[in-house]
Amino acid sequence: MKKARLQKLSALVLAAALALTGCGGGGGEQQGSSGKTNLVMSTSVGEPGNLHPYATNNAGVKNSIGSVYECLFKLAEDGSEVLPGIGESWEWSDDYMQLTVHLRQGVKFHNGEELKASDVAFSINQWGEFSTPRASLNDSLDFENVETPDDYTVVINMVTPDSSVVANMASIQCHTFIVSEKAWNELGDQMQYEPVGTGPFAFDEWVQGDHLSLKRFDDYWGGPAKLESITLRYIEEQSQAYIELETGGLDCTMEALSTDIQRAEENENLQVITSEGTSVRMNALNFNCAVPELSDARVRQAIGYAIDKEAIQNTIWPVEGEVAYSVLPVDGWGYDESLTGTANGYDLEKAKQLMAEAGYPNGFDRPLTLLTDSRDYHVSSVEMIQNALGQLGIQVEVSTIELTAQKEIMVTGEGYDLYMLDYVCSATDPLFGVYRSFYPPYGITNSSQYLMNANTEQATEFAAILDEIKAEFDETAKLELTKEMQTLFLEEMYCVPLCSQTPTAVAVQNLKNVQMFGNGTLYIGNETYFE
Length: 531
Known about the structure:
The protein has helices spanning 59-65, 117-127, 131-136, 165-168, 181-187, 238-247, 258-265, 297-306, 309-316, 348-357, 376-390, 403-410, 431-438, 457-471, 475-492, and strands at residues 38-43, 73-75, 82-84, 87-92, 98-103, 141-150, 153-158, 201-207, 211-216, 229-234, 252-254, 270-274, 281-287, 321-323, 368-372, 396-400, 418-420, 423-424, 495-501, 504-508, 511-516, 522-530. It is globular, with a radius of gyration of 23 Å. The protein is built from 15 helices and 22 strands. By secondary structure, it is an alpha+beta fold.
């Protein structure tokens, strides 16, 4: 299931976004031969606490509102280039300090209001108020200084040039959704439960604890959807969801288990859907670098060498996973191929040598506390990590708690030493996941304690090269800087990347024109239908 690496820098972010919402889409009268117009799908990543476009950053909310809201732009299906969306065209100033966007006319919100430049300016201002879009855009926009020369022109001023910002504004992963200023002001807090966007489907109902329903928006600018409705069910047990898929209770399930993916590949009535971009969900062992034992890079490197990552990958993601050798996925843009099979591979003797050099030949005097949520692949990883670190004399006590509670502890920086947490790296933009998780000046971002000590020479050097990458618009130069960044990262071992997962869903065979996001959510557009 390995995919070819994308080569174009013009799509610097996850392959997916809104690739299927093209102009001239079909309507309900263009249904497939099955006549079925209601899609029933499921997700196991958890029901979001709300449907806020900016304040909630998890896969559950993206699954829920990915067909309701739209970004300014969209990405080609293979992630190779940025395409027009509700932003019909755009151009940079010569110094890359202004981005002018020309809006498509006649775009309607679900409340019937036409989208205007003032809505876009209002949305960008909101991006600056919430950490998820702000961090996703590398803090490069002047969020409060957006010009609107007329109703269909937006001039976005920059704080600093950023070669990834256009593609990041095309990605659902970045939460750069365009909202209706009128709906936002009228609905207030209720908008986080009844979202109003410009997408092909509008909010219908949310029965918390059970399902979310969306309905076709007939005034969609790309043409009314072929489906009449979408029902998203929240089913925690992945195996239960797959059984319902086989027995007709579901048309599609996301986050399928490896064993079920293998079964689906042998079932002529089912299809396996994967991301067209790259493997971007990285399973990683993360360090609280503030604790004395883990503040030494040699200790962090030793822990990395002691872990057999290939064994972990074969255990948790044997079908849809790959061993990780870098902070970037092995099939993503900018990955240094020389790292494959060599960087921080399993080497117990080298691990013991590094521990001795750091002053811990027999391990630590106290056990380390490792936080994890209860997802199967994290639990399996933790068991193998415990055994691996035991060979270095490091005892690990595991604290398994609900993910939200885990993040609340992590942001304090106290009461833990290690933690399991995935980070999402862009399909082609090396900045996306790296900036959000590892850029020292950000401190705490994305509801996570950042993984490095900002008050060190190494952290300053790492921040500087990330700034260089961000400001570089020449592809060749950016590629070289990206390789240098990976070397610096491995020298400090700010976390141990274990393996990356190819986002995968399983659906009935006659479901057509769906697109898997690189972050593991499935986009349903106006061209999706049952054959």
